C-alpha cells in the first residue's frame, strides 16, 4: 500500500521533471544576438520587453532581426508597449530558413506571428505576408489589405534546424495602427479593478480596494507589476480559509502575495527556474512562489497547493495581469492553523523549491482549520483533481471571458491615477 503510493509519487515526480525538461528549447536568443554588435539595440529591446523569454520558450520559430540602423526608427521613439507589439510581429511562428523562403508555394504566403497570440492584434493584423519577389528578393509586409512589402530579407544570422531561424531584414514590418495604438498611460494598464471585475475576479478586486493594497500595487507600476488574480470561483473553493477570520495584517499579506514588483509575462514564467519574490516577501525565502510548466501551461506553487495560470487579462509592458484558478495560500499564513494569531511569521518548514519532494506530505502541517485538506503540491496534475467542480467551472468561465477581456484591455481608458485618487 505505502510502497505503491510511493511508486506513484515517484512516477508523478518523474513526469513532472520530464514536463519541465521538455519545455527547455535549448536556444538563448540573447546569447545568439550578443555575438553581433550590430543587433545590440534590437537585443536590448528583446530583453526589456521580455520577448527574449518568450522566444526561448518556443521552437519552430523564425525571428526577423533589425540592425541598429533599421532599429532606430523604433528605438526610443515609442513607449515600450508599442515597441513590444512591433517586435512581436517579427517573431514568426513557423520555421523559415533561406531555402524555405525561396520555395514558398505560389511565391506568397501569410504566416502567424507572436503578435497574433497576444490578443492585442485586431483582425489579421498579427499576420505577416512573405512574398518571393522577382530577382531572388524576398519581401515582408503586414497582411492587412493594401500594405506594402516594405521590408526585404538581407541575410541569415543563425539557424538551429528546426528550432529557430534568425534572419535579418532591412526595415520593421509596420501593421496599420501598431505605432499609433492608444499608448497606455504612463501607469501601464488602466483601471486595474475595472479589468479584474470584467474578468470575473470581483471578490479579489473588492478586497484590493477595501484593504488598501491596491495602492501598493499602483506604487510599483513604474518598476513593473505582475498580478495573479484568483477568480470568484477560486474564493468559493473548498479549502480556502474563511477570510473574515484573518487579521487585517494577514489579509494584506495574502493580497500582496498575489503580485510581483516586476514585469513577468507568461513567457518569462515559463522559462523561470527560481523562487519568485512577491510583494509580501519580507525576507529571504519568505512569501515566495515557484513555477512549473505542463505543455503550454504555467502552474504556480505556494508550498500548500498548485494554482494554474488561466488567462492573461492584460499585458502592456511593464504591467501584466493574469487570472489564476486557485487562491494562492502562502505557507507563512496557512502552513499552520489560520487562527488569527498576531504573529504570522515563524514557519520552520522546508522552503518550497522548484523540484518538489516526492513525499506526499509537503508542508509540515497542512491547513488544520478546514476539513478538506488542501491539495498535495507535487504534480501539475494536482489542480484539477483536488477540487474538480470548482476548477471545471472556472475553466469554462475563463474560456468564456477570454475574448471579451482582451478586447476590453484596449478600450478601457481610465487611468490608474484616477483609481487611486478615488480611494
Ligand atoms: C531543439 O529543441 C528541442 C526541444 O524542443 C531540444 O531538445 C533540442 O536540444 C534543440 N536543438 C538544438 C540544436 O538546440
Ligand atoms: C542567455 O544568455 C545571456 C547572455 O549570455 C545570459 O545573460 C542569460 O543568463 C542567458 N539566459 C539563459 C536563460 O540561460
Ligand atoms: C502578399 O502581398 C502581395 C502584395 O501586396 C499580394 O499580391 C499577395 O497576394 C499577398 N499574399 C497573400 C498570401 O495574401
Ligand atoms: C473602472 O472600471 C469599472 C468597470 O468598468 C468602472 O465601474 C469604474 O468606474 C472604473 N474606475 C474608475 C476610477 O473610473
TrEMBL record:
Any single GO CC term annotated in Swiss-Prot or TrEMBL for this entry: plasma membrane
Pfam families to which the protein is assigned, alphabetical: Fasciclin
Protein's UniProt keywords contain Phosphoprotein: no
Signal sequence residues: 1-26
SUPFAM superfamilies, sorted: FAS1 domain (SSF82153)
Family to which this protein belongs: Belongs to the fasciclin-like AGP family.
Biological function: May be a cell surface adhesion protein.
Membrane topology listed for this record: Lipid-anchor; GPI-anchor
Protein name, per record: FAS1 domain-containing protein
Domain of life of the organism encoding this protein: Eukaryota
Biased composition (Polar residues): 386-396
Organism expressing this protein natively: Brassica campestris
Predominant location: membrane
Subcellular compartments: Cell membrane
Amino acid at each position: 500500500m505505502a510502497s505503491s503510493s510511493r511508486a506513484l509519487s515517484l512516477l508523478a515526480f518523474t513526469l513532472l521533471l520530464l514536463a519541465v525538461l521538455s519545455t527547455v528549447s535549448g536556444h538563448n536568443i540573447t546569447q545568439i544576438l550578443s555575438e553581433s554588435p550590430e543587433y545590440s539595440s534590437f537585443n536590448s529591446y528583446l530583453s526589456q520587453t521580455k520577448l527574449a523569454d518568450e522566444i526561448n520558450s518556443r521552437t519552430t520559430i523564425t525571428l526577423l532581426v533589425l540592425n541598429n540602423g533599421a532599429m532606430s526608427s523604433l528605438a526610443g521613439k515609442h513607449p515600450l508597449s508599442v515597441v513590444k507589439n512591433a517586435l512581436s510581429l517579427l517573431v514568426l511562428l513557423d520555421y523559415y530558413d533561406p531555402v524555405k523562403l525561396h520555395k514558398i508555394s505560389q511565391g506568397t504566403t501569410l504566416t502567424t506571428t507572436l503578435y497574433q497570440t497576444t490578443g492585442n492584434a485586431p483582425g489579421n493584423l498579427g499576420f505577416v505576408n512573405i512574398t518571393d519577389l522577382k530577382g531572388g528578393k524576398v519581401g515582408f509586409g503586414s497582411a492587412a489589405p493594401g500594405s506594402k512589402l516594405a521590408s526585404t530579407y538581407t541575410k541569415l544570422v543563425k539557424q538551429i534546424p528546426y528550432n529557430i531561424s534568425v534572419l535579418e531584414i532591412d526595415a520593421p514590418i509596420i501593421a496599420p495602427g501598431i505605432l499609433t495604438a492608444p499608448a497606455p498611460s504612463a501607469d501601464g494598464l488602466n483601471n486595474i479593478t475595472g479589468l479584474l471585475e470584467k474578468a470575473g475576479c470581483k471578490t479579489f478586486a473588492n478586497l484590493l480596494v477595501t484593504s488598501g493594497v491596491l495602492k501598493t500595487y499602483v506604487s510599483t507600476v513604474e518598476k513593473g507589476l505582475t498580478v495573479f488574480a484568483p477568480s470568484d470561483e477560486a474564493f468559493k473553493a473548498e479549502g480556502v480559509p474563511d477570510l473574515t477570520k484573518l487579521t487585517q495584517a494577514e489579509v494584506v499579506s495574502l493580497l500582496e502575495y498575489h503580485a510581483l514588483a516586476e514585469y513577468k509575462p507568461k513567457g518569462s514564467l515559463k522559462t523561470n527556474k527560481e523562487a519568485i519574490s512577491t510583494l509580501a516577501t519580507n525576507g529571504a525565502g519568505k512569501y515566495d512562489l515557484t513555477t512549473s510548466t505542463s505543455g503550454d501551461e504555467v502552474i504556480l506553487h505556494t508550498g500548500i497547493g498548485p494554482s494554474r495560470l488561466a488567462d492573461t487579462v492584460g499585458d502592456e509592458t511593464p504591467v501584466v495581469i493574469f487570472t489564476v484558478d486557485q487562491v494562492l495560500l502562502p505557507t507563512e499564513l496557512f502552513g499552520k492553523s489560520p487562527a488569527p494569531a498576531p504573529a504570522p511569521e515563524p514557519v520552520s518548514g522546508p522552503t518550497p523549491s522548484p523540484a518538489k519532494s516526492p513525499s506526499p506530505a509537503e508542508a509540515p502541517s497542512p491547513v488544520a482549520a478546514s476539513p478538506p485538506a488542501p491539495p498535495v503540491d507535487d504534480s501539475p496534475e494536482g489542480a484539477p483533481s483536488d477540487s474538480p467542480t470548482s476548477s471545471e467551472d472556472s475553466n469554462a468561465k475563463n474560456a468564456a471571458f477570454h475574448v471579451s477581456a482582451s478586447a476590453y484591455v484596449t478600450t478601457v481608458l481610465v487611468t490608474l491615477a484616477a483609481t487611486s485618487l478615488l480611494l
